[in-house]
């Protein structure tokens, strides 16, 4: 009688464990498979708005504004790709 009850409880526990494992595997599988491809509603975090570029007039390179070196040359601010370009512009003015 008690032995039969133990068997039933044991079977239920195994079913719970099995269900948990299956769910975890299914979740991991669906995450890795659908995340990069699914367009999905709402904003997608990996697609960022294009950052505006500024022209370095010394070497004619476009640099993202956040990475540009800004210096005041001959009274107005200019953006440069590197300290070398900034120094060349400053030297040309002086
Ligand atoms: Zn430059």
Descriptive account of the structure:
The protein is α+β, with helices and mostly antiparallel strands and 94 residues long. The chain contains two helices and four strands, in the order αββββα. The chain has a two-stranded antiparallel ribbon. A two-stranded antiparallel sheet has the order 3-4. A hairpin with a 4-residue loop joins β1 and β2. The radius of gyration is 31 Å and the shape is rod-shaped. The protein starts with a helix and ends with a helix. 10% of the residues are buried. The mean pLDDT is 83. Zinc ion (ZN) is lined by residues 56, 58-59, 61, 80-82, 85. Residues 56, 58-59, 61, 80-82, 85 line the site of zinc ion.
Primary descriptors:
94 residues, two-stranded antiparallel sheet, binds zinc ion
């Amino acid at each position: 009688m008690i032995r039969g009850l133990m068997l039933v409880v044991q079977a239920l526990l195994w079913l719970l464990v099995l269900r948990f494992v299956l769910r975890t595997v299914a979740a991991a599988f669906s995450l890795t498979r659908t995340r990069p491809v699914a367009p999905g509603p709402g904003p997608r975090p990996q697609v960022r708005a294009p950052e505006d570029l500024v022209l370095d007039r010394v070497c004619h390179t476009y640099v993202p504004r956040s990475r540009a070196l800004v210096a005041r040359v001959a009274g107005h601010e200019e953006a440069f790709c590197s300290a070398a370009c900034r120094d060349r512009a400053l030297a040309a003015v002086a």
